[in-house]
Amino acid sequence: MKKPPNVKPFASEDRRLLQYAKNLLANPGLVAQLTNVLGTPIEVAIKRLPKGACKRVNDTLESALLKCVRIAAKTMGDSTDERSWNKTHLGAVVVTGATAGLLGPWTMLLEIPVTTTIIFRSIADIARSEGEVIKTGEGLQECLKVFALGGTSKNDDATESGYFAVRSALAAQIKKGADFVAKEASKEGTPAVVALIKKVVEILGMQYSEKLAAQLLPIVGAVGGASINAIFMGHFQSMARGHFIVRRLERIYGEAVIKEAYDLLPEYEDIVPPLARYQ
């Protein structure tokens, strides 16, 4: 089979980088991580949530994400920044989680905008370090997509089929929903961005509801709230790094080449991160 024209040979170093991305994207979903830490099935805690709690979480999230996009579009530069802010962002959400744990789980509705903004900023920083142009509509949409990775179902573990399936589903949703929300679009975002946020909130809202349910458990206090927020931040940082590594390689080799190479890689391979900044 002839190689497509203008496609560069796939370098062995880039193969390692793609494997590293796949390792990150194969991390267990948030439900599995929360269950492992708490030792209690989240499904049990979800049933204890008052009626209407999930809708309040979703409404709060949608508003928070719209503001995140608006702020990022106005304040973030496009220069590639390879410094790692992961620990700084992690520390910030740990503090907000601990505070919510001390004041009571229902303060989470006030915590959501703060935590979500910090997580979004961390995702955007990772995207920028991988060469993504943040201020464009496409760049902002790719940051939003990260919130939908590794959490589409209770059993989702973001394997290769899940990763590309989520990307494909979100792309279709944007195209389908953009015209529908055009009349409702506000200055915070284009119709496509608003459509994507609505779709992402369907997935992310369930994850935040699981977070709220976990914080309602008697065993969870300030330490538990901090730990739960740390899990959230760590998860989305891993999803962002994996996603934007794939995106960077796609810009070099083309989407079809990277998709084929990704599918041929093992689900997980114990390798040393290919660059020092990933360690």
Automatic annotation (TrEMBL):
Q: What is the lineage of its organism?
A: Bacteria, Pseudomonadati, Pseudomonadota, Gammaproteobacteria, Pseudomonadales
What is the protein name given in its UniProt record?
EcsC protein family protein
